[in-house]
Amino acid sequence: EVQFVESGGDLVQAGGSLRLSCAASGFTSGDDSAISWFRQAPGQEREAISCFSSSDSSTAYADSVKGRFTVSSDTAKNTVYLQMNSLKPKDTAVYYCAVFEKYVGPAAVVCFAPDEYDYWGQGTQVTVSS
Question: E-strand spans in the chain?
Fold first, then answer.
């Protein structure tokens, strides 16, 4: 069974940092794929904040997090990370990782196709206090 489990969400003060993890089990990224982070705040639409496409090794970030958030991965641990710095109250949301299998194309495009993703984690809550 393929599973993606996010962790690392917490309550943090504005200006602080968190690192989220997305651990995959039953899945290997041997084929081209897209691995992305989304977030959803109460009453708001789901927002793509970081997308990576292995077909061309491109990464895209939402303007709202550019320069503050960074994605990385540890292949040996089959884990993707989202480092979040300079957090703001408007970053408060549930954060999800998602995978689009067999995706070929630039990261910036796949960010706009959340309905095409094959797997989603359960989400982890990030709350930023002012």
Answer: 3-7, 11-13, 18-25, 33-40, 47-53, 58-61, 69-74, 79-84, 93-101, 119-120, 124-129
The CA radius of gyration of the chain, in Å to the nearest whole number, is 14
Per-residue pLDDT of the chain (130 residues; tens, 9 = 90+): 889 999 999 999 999 999 999 998 887 666 788 999 999 999 999 999 999 998 999 999 999 999 999 999 888 888 999 999 999 999 999 999 999 999 999 999 988 888 999 999 999 999 999 9
Distance CA 121, CA 97 (A): 6
